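Input/output pair, single chain:
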Amino acid sequence: MAGICAAASAIAGTGLLNSVAHTGNSLAAHRQYPGYAGDTLYRDQPQAVSHARVITAPGSSPVTFTKEILKRSISGGRRRKPQSPRSPANIADLSSISVRVTPTLGR
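Output:
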C-alpha cells in the first residue's frame, strides 16, 4: 500500500497506519479521519516513510516516494539489506529504470 499527499490521509482513515511508522502532509490532516489512531507513529519529515509494506509521503516529496516504491519493486516487496549507493548490485538494479515526471497543472 502506498499513498502520497492526501492519499496518505485517506489511508490513515482506514486505520491501516495505526500500527506502522508513517508520514503525510500533516498530522492534523490524518486526525480529520475518525479511523485514525496512529499519532505516536507519525513522522513529521520531508521524506517518504516505508514500514511493513506501507509507504507514505507528504505531497512535497514525490522523489523519495518514488524511490521507496522502486526499491520495493526491485526487491519483489522484500526489504533488502542496505547497500552502498555505489555498490554493483544497486547500479545493476537501477540502471534500467527511468522516471518521467509530468506536471498535471489545472486538474
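The first helix runs from residue 6 to 13. The mean pLDDT is 82.
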